[in-house]
Recover the amino acids of this structure.
């Protein structure tokens, strides 16, 4: 089991390393001068030279890559004496703990990954992500809870009432929800519930902002504004969960132990919810975990449509301003979340099902 866990974490590390490499190469070949973005178009050449040196852009690309990976690594080597060194251990950049010396000037430190600073406002990218990531997590978590609850419920009843009007209607809606882009569905929901039915929903769509009317108050403003973005984000996983639950339930209901439980006199719903559903949820759990990780990365359009102040909207704003450190940091954090969740799910399956470890 230990070997299986180590292998999964090693694979996850390789994915993160590849992601960091691709992100670095992609954003360092784009045109544009970060120094001019930070200082403005009328900056003097001396100031531009100083900023480029601080960013390490006066060095060859491979050396810049090594500096970038050194900043990202929790265990890294830094120079503690020479201020002009490209790997100088600056208190302004790093939150660290010294471990031991490596040579006369260098020291091995344990630190938080340093994601550089924003070109626009000089704020640490880590602080920007720390402020916006919880908002995206709340949106994604709410969306996956809604999708899981209603998806499993509808899927179970579709399997119980197979080939009825309810079953066929649920499959039609599942196909429609899967085929609809989230930004398009979001615009429709915004128009219908924020404009046409605003007298009943008490949500008014003003420009790009959701605001409460006189029926609401400041305490439940954010909670009420969460409803439509969460529903929009959760519609596609809802459709997948409905279909997976239905298919899995239909398969499980044909097993011998279900017939045995029915023959013992258990009620129909006791057989369905206590025996069949428990064993039918394995593929559904896989879909839920994957979709939750995906929604952390895929909420960009929904956040933009509903002006939700999450990491997706911050990434779009950074792209518009060519603020590459923020974009790179956001991509890396989302990739790390995706890898961690999928790795933990793989390990959990390995614990629950030894056949996974054997394969």
């Amino acid at each position: 089991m230990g070997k299986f866990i180590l292998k999964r974490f090693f694979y996850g590390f390789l994915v993160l390393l590849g992601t960091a490499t691709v992100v670095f190469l992609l954003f360092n070949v784009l045109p544009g001068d970060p120094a001019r973005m930070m200082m403005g178009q009328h900056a003097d050449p001396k100031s531009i030279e100083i900023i480029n040196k601080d960013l390490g852009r006066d060095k060859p690309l491979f050396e810049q890559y090594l500096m970038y990976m050194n900043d990202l690594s929790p265990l890294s080597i830094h120079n503690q004496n020479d201020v002009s060194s490209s790997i100088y251990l600056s208190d302004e950049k790093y939150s660290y703990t010294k471990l031991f010396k490596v040579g006369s000037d260098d020291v091995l430190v344990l630190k938080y990954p340093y994601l550089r600073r924003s070109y626009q406002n000089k704020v640490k990218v880590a602080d920007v992500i720390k402020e916006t990531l919880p908002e995206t997590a709340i949106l994604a978590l709410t969306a996956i809870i809604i999708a899981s609850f209603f998806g499993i419920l509808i899927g179970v009843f579709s399997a119980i009432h197979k080939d009825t009007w309810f079953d066929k209607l649920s499959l039609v809606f599942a196909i429609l929800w899967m085929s609809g882009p989230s930004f398009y569905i979001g615009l429709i929901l915004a128009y219908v519930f924020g404009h046409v039915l605003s007298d009943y929903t008490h949500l008014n769509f003003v420009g790009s902002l959701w605001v409460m009317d006189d029926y609401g108050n400041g305490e439940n403003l954010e909670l009420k504004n969460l409803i439509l973005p969460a529903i929009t984000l959760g519609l596609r996983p809802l459709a997948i969960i409905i279909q997976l639950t239905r298919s899995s339930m239909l398969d499980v209901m044909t097993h011998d132990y279900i017939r045995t439980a029915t023959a013992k006199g258990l009620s129909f719903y006791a057989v369905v919810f206590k025996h069949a559903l428990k064993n039918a949820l394995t593929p559904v759990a896989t879909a839920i975990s994957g979709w939750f990780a995906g929604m952390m990365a895929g909420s960009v359009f929904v956040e933009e449509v509903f002006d939700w102040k999450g990491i997706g909207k911050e990434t779009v704003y950074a792209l518009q301003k060519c603020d590459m450190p923020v974009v790179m940091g956001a991509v890396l954090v989302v990739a790390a979340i995706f890898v961690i969740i999928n790795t933990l799910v793989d390990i959990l399956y390995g614990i629950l099902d030894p056949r996974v470890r054997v394969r």
About this structure: The longest helix spans residues 125-160. The mean pLDDT is 79. Strands lie at 75-79, 96-102, 106-111, 203-206, 209-212. Residues 143 and 242 are 15 Å apart (CA to CA).
